[in-house]
Amino acid sequence: MISCNKSMPLPKPKQDSKTKQSMRIQASRDALALGNGAPDLEKTIRRLASTRAWDVHKPLPTTREIGSRYAISNATVCRLLNRLYGEGVIWRQENGRYFLNESRQLFERRKPYACLLRKLQHWSRVYQGVMSGFSQTFGDDRAMMLFVHNQSLVRHADIAHPPVHAGVEAQRESLAEFFRDNSNGFRGILLDEVWLDDVLKEFPEQLANAVIVCRPTTLPNLSSVSVDFESGALLAVGHLYARGFDEIWLAIPFVESVSVELMMQAAIKSAARLGKPIKEKNICMVASPDDRERLLDRVRSSKVRAGIFCFEDNISLILRKIFAAADIDCPTRVGLLSAMGTDLVVDQRISSLKIDFERIGRAAGEILLGRKHDIVAIPPQLFSGTST
Most-buried pick from 13, 101, 134, 376 (CB within 10 A)? Predict the structure, then answer.
């Protein structure tokens, strides 16, 4: 028989979840002890962040309470906390309260990313690419995505006719209604290019982590991922001149589009740089059947060999069919180059700028996931088909 003189340890009393939570809260309060001045406060907060001594479920005390503990003004506390928030040490919730930075994931884990898009039948190939890339970014994050298809943004019942875009007032009402109905907020917001900066600038808090795709933005706090219009236009214009076309005609598919306007201006600039400016009379509307009939008449009567740079793939396809029906050989009599490069034109061997819309979506997702501000311009590639 073996004897042992050591006494058996007494079991520790079990702590229920409420007791543990109370202890965490008390530990957090003790962690933010009294101090003297802003340097002490900054040192304490940095220590709490590095050691995780503060309960991530709880906000830091109010600025007034912190100021009284550290004998500094409320304004000084606000400036310090805002600086530490900018450095990523702490995190500010929508209601203005500050938490440790790791609390962000805890609070935002169940918030979705909102995608505010036009009805996807319009420009479906473009946004299929964008959303494919966008969703790939969040594969490992298990993020939820809320697709909001706003039918009023663009009305385009017939691709043979120009679309109708919602104006400033209609967009403002639509966006305000969306934020009223979804007051809990989102982890980030993806915006269709047709949203106007004049409207978006009125919602800075709701769009604190937002990115607009397929066009750049003039707003300082809004991110964007778009095509590099200048490099794309230089590729297109240079290609048409290199193929021996005497003049370049710009085919404008519709107005009220920032991306169309930017590509047009970039093409005009590129042609001037190459020493062959585009004449004003060669900027041609092709939005309606009547517009395209006038263009066809010009091609028939023209004594020069024109290279037509069209800014929309559906219209480019229509122009190719019109030229074929009129026995106008492409590219012998006239050249055609499209500006988007979707399968609509590539499958028909129409020369095009190939825009990587999937890459645009991935870049937009990375911006939102990293909660960073960025302006990205992705250069297109040239697809040389049989139309030039």
Answer: 134
Residue 335 buriedness (CB in 10 A; 0-12 / 13-18 / 19+)? buried
Q: What are the structural domains, with CATH classification, of the chain?
A: 32-106 (1.10.10.10), 108-227+359-379 (3.40.50.2300), 229-354 (3.40.50.2300)
Residues 29-49, mean pLDDT to the nearest whole number: 79
306-330: pLDDT as tens digits: 999 999 999 999 999 999 999 999 9
User: What 3-state DSSP class applies to 225?
Assistant: strand
Q: What is the DSSP string of 272-328?
A: HHTT-PPPGGGEEE-SSHHHHHHHHHHHHH-SS-EEEEES-HHHHHHHHHHHHHTT-
Chain-centroid distance of CA 325 in Å reads: 40
In which residue are the tokens 């990293």 written?
Answer: 370
Its sign, for the CA torsion 310, 314, 318, 324, is positive
| Residues sharing a CB contact under 8 Å with residue 146, sequence separation 6 or more, in sequence order | 112, 113, 114, 115, 186
Collapse the DSSP code of 127 into the 3-class scheme (helix H, G, I; strand E, B; otherwise coil) and give the result. Answer: helix
